[in-house]
């Protein structure tokens, strides 16, 4: 074998040994495979750049889609901003199919009482604030196929020339309820109790005795012609200082039922649910000072103020690949000390202005992380961070390149929303946030920063 190397020089032998060394020294990693063969000018590099983003407060005008299972009742003057929000609502009552008044109640010649009860899960403001509430029966049907907005004209559905069926002064902390009962969650659910004329309930009872199909379903009940069958308008007349979040409205017929020891009260109820229409009406006032404030922008719900941002896509390099584009909205801390503070919006939707104006909520649209995004308030940074809106940026740039961009192509809105998730943490519903919230954001005349990371391939 050694004879085969007689013609080799010592230099040639060194070349062979070096080749063997190269191959035996390779490991299993292929992460740099081919890199050594590429010219130095072909490497991929990243570039970090920031752009100024203009923002302003966007007036909603009290007209947002009022799709919610919670109703709101009251009036609240915000001591921090001087703004005022008033709310009341219209509600129908749902009938479970083939509902019947129990036989044990049919032994009565008449009902004993008829009540409307408005149950609230929480409230904002002073529970001792006094309000006057008037109740009007509706004489026109609210169609479930119609979209109702927060500036709904209630007079479409009731006769405002007539007197209310009942009026009542109330406080959220009902002084007629014993203290020991009021603070016991096992026996008492906070509610506003409204006693209707007994005749209203008696006619419902007698109509059932004549024809029990009036409770066959919600449609037969609505078309029965009875007072309250089309629903009620709960109109706030006077008062200030609190707003209740009404989770359930109930129409109760009560009966005295004798037992062996003592008479007891039993009843039959109709409840407002999502199967029938509940339409909230909001009236915001004194927003002008916030809208004209150029030192910041605002978020205010319900149906008050959004924040609009104009993305600087005309300045962005279209030839490079955008890896990441982040936008952070920082909240100013409040130093107000002399009264009740509104909550901070928990979740914000970023959506294109054009998409919002074309019925984003009406179409039951969910976020796609391409042209719409969600961000939750981060208390540690006091901000809302949209960590990567690069797909939105590239979508806008593509529209401009193809000549399909509208005048609002660069504009997005920040909207307080309620996001509902299923047990698998999948987003299933997105609605406007109708709770009382407020936030003052960095922006206005001072631009905020869009941070972009590019990838560039050097040819």
Description:
It is built from 7 helices and 21 strands. With 459 residues, it is mainly beta. It folds into 2 domains: 48-59 and 287-457, no CATH class; 84-284, no CATH class. The strands form 3 sheets. Strands 2, 3, 4, 5, 6, 7, 8, 9, 10 and 11 form a 10-stranded antiparallel beta sheet that branches. β9 (242-257) and β10 (264-271) form a beta hairpin. The two termini are 50 Å apart. 31% of the residues are buried. Residues 1-8, 13-17 and 19-41 have low confidence and may be disordered.
Q: Tell me the fraction of residues in β-strands, as a range.
A: 35-45%
Shape: elongated
Q: Can you give the mean pLDDT?
A: 87
Number of domains: 2
Total number of helices? 7
Main beta sheet, described?
10 strands, antiparallel
Question: Uncertain segments of ≥5 residues (pLDDT<50)?
Answer: 1-8, 13-17, 19-41
Spatial separation of the terminal alpha carbons: 50 Å
Q: What class, by secondary structure content?
A: mainly beta
What is the number of strand segments? 21
* Rg on CA atoms, Å: 33 Å
Q: Encode the helix/strand succession as letters.
A: HEEEEEEHEHHEEEEHEEEEHEEHEEEE
Percentage of residues assigned to helices: 10-25%
What are the main properties of this structure?
459 residues, 2 domains, ten-stranded antiparallel beta sheet, elongated, disordered N terminus
Q: What's a quick, concise take on this entry?
A:
With 459 residues, the chain is mainly beta. Helices cover 13% and strands 38% of the residues.
List strands and helices in order, with pairings.
Blueprint: H1 10-24, E1 44-59, E2 71-77, E3 84-91, E4 113-125, E5 131-137, E6 166-170, H2 179-182, E7 191-195, H3 198-210, H4 218-222, E8 232-239, E9 242-257, E10 264-271, E11 278-285, H5 288-291, E12 296-301, E13 305-310, E14 321-330, E15 347-352, H6 353-357, E16 372-378, E17 383-386, H7 390-401, E18 411-421, E19 427-432, E20 437-442, E21 448-457
Antiparallel strand pairs: 1-13, 1-21, 2-3, 2-9, 3-8, 3-11, 4-7, 4-9, 5-6, 5-8, 9-10, 12-20, 13-18, 14-17, 14-21, 15-16, 15-18, 16-17, 18-19
């Amino acid at each position: 074998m050694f004879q085969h190397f007689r013609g080799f020089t010592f230099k040639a032998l060194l070349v062979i040994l070096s080749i063997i060394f190269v191959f035996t020294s390779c490991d299993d990693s292929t992460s740099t495979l081919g890199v050594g063969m590429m010219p130095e000018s072909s490497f991929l590099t990243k570039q970090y750049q920031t752009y100024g983003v203009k923002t302003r407060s966007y007036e909603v005008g009290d007209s947002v889609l009022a799709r919610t299972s919670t109703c709101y009742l009251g009036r609240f003057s915000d001591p921090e901003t001087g703004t005022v929000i008033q709310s009341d609502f219209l509600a129908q009552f749902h009938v479970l199919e083939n509902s019947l008044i129990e036989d044990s109640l049919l032994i009565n010649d008449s009902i004993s009482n008829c009540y409307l009860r408005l149950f609230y899960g929480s409230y904002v403001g002073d529970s001792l604030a006094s309000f006057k509430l008037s109740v009007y029966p509706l004489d026109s049907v609210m169609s479930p196929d119609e979209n109702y907005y927060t500036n709904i004209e209630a007079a479409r559905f009731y006769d405002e020339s007539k007197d209310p069926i009942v009026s009542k002064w109330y406080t959220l902390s009902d002084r007629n309820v014993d203290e020991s009962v009021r603070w016991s969650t096992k026996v008492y659910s906070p509610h506003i109790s409204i006693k209707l004329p007994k005749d209203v309930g008696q006619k419902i009872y007698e109509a059932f005795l004549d024809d029990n199909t009036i409770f066959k379903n919600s449609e037969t009940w609505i078309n029965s012609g009875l007072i309250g069958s089309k629903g009620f308008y709960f109109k706030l007349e006077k008062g200030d200082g609190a707003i209740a979040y009404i989770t359930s409205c109930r129409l109760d017929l009560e009966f005295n039922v004798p037992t062996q020891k003592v008479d007891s009260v039993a009843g039959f109820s109709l409840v407002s649910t999502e199967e029938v229409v509940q339409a909230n009406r909001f009236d915001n006032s004194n927003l002008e000072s916030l809208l004209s404030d150029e030192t910041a922008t605002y978020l205010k719900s319900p149906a008050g103020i959004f924040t609009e941002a104009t993305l600087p896509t005309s300045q962005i390099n279209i030839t490079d690949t955008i890896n990441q584009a982040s936008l952070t909205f920082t909240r100013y801390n409040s130093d107000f000390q002399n009264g009740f503070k509104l909550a901070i919006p928990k979740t914000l939707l970023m959506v294109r202005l054009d998409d919002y104006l074309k019925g984003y909520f009406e179409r039951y649209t969910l976020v796609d992380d391409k042209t719409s995004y969600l961000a939750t308030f981060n208390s540690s940074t006091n901000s809302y961070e949209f960590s990567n809106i690069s797909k939105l940026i590239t979508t806008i740039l593509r529209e401009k390149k193809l000549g399909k961009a509208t005048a609002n192509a660069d504009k997005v809105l920040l909207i307080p929303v309620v996001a509902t998730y299923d047990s698998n943490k999948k987003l299933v519903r997105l609605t406007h946030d109708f709770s009382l919230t407020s936030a003052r954001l960095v922006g206005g005349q001072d631009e905020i920063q869009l941070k972009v990371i590019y990838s560039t391939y050097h040819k």
